[in-house]
Automatic annotation (TrEMBL):
The chain crosses the membrane at residues 43-63, 70-88, 94-111. It comes from the Bacteria. This is DUF3325 family protein. Keywords: Membrane, Transmembrane, Transmembrane helix. InterPro entries: DUF3325 (IPR021762). Pfam families: DUF3325.
Length: 112
């Protein structure tokens, strides 16, 4: 369960970063459209975070099983991000911080 929370929180952070790279969601999250370099940074960061989550899954167990595990966590992360952008626009920054804290705590607990 701890490993799932780790992968889920990391993929959620990746999806939030990718959402922050889209103009519509930039208005929701930041209240304005970001400059092109910041948009590009959010895109690159989002893909890197998702790749890190995939890498963690790949080195943890059988590759075929863990890719399926990663895709499952992507689904739950997409639900969180989609519902957050739809119904909790004012609390997105708090949700991102909560995801980062969950990733940090579960990362520490999984490494022990």
């Amino acid at each position: 369960m701890m490993f799932f929370l780790l992968i889920w929180s990391i993929t959620s952070l990746g999806f939030f970063a990718l959402a922050a790279s889209m103009q519509k969601h930039q208005k929701q999250i930041f209240g304005q459209i970001l400059a092109a370099p910041k948009t590009r940074l959010a895109t690159i960061l989002g893909w890197i975070i998702l790749a890190v989550a995939l890498g963690l899954c790949a080195i943890t167990g059988a590759l075929s099983n863990m890719i399926s595990y990663w895709v499952g966590s992507l689904s739950f992360a997409a639900i969180l991000v989609g519902l957050s952008l739809s119904y909790a626009q004012n609390k997105i920054k708090l949700i991102v911080i909560a995801c980062a804290v969950v990733a940090l705590i579960t990362g520490i607990m999984c490494s022990i």
